[in-house]
Amino acid sequence: MSDKLIISVDADVAALVPRFLGNRAADVGKIRAALAGDDFEAVRAAAHAMKGAGGAYGFPEISRLGAAMEEGAQRRDAAVIAKLAASLEAYLARIEIKADDGQGAPGSG
Questions:
Q1: Alpha-carbon distance 53 to 45, whole Å?
Q2: Residue 36: which pLDDT band, with cuts at 50, 70 and 90?
Q3: 20 to 30 A from 26, CA-CA: which of 45, 75, 95, 107?
């Protein structure tokens, strides 16, 4: 059994999703670097952007993780943020995108 997460995204945004996900992967590195420098404001800003954008692209888990990291940054809780960044990284590694054109019959697939 594969551990891949197959996520259907609206065909209208499917072309934008790889870049979006690549940017979130880059955010993991930025968040870790910010943590190393105790720059909780940089963590908060990156997490806030994730929180807002995840749902728009069809990734509520990214929004959830972003919200949790933003809260961690506000509390200056580096351990929680590091754990959440690792969760985000693992989540991103499992994603496989499927464009949904809205034409599929209910229950098909």
A1: 12
A2: very high
A3: 75
For 104, the token pair is 């599929």
Q: Which two tokens stand for residue 11?
A: 């065909």
Report CA 45 to chain centroid distance, whole Å. 14
Burial class, 44, CB count within 10 angstroms (exposed 0-12 / middle 13-18 / buried 19+) = buried
Q: Which long-range contacts (CB under 8 A, 24 or more apart) does 51-56 make?
A: 53/20
b/e map 56-94, b = 16+ CB within 10 Å = ebbbebbbbbbbbbbbbbeeeebeebeebbebbbebbee
Q: What residues does 96 pair with on adjacent strands?
A: 6
Per-residue pLDDT reduced to its tens digit, 77-102: 999 999 999 999 999 999 999 888 76
R_g of the chain, CA atoms, integer Å: 15
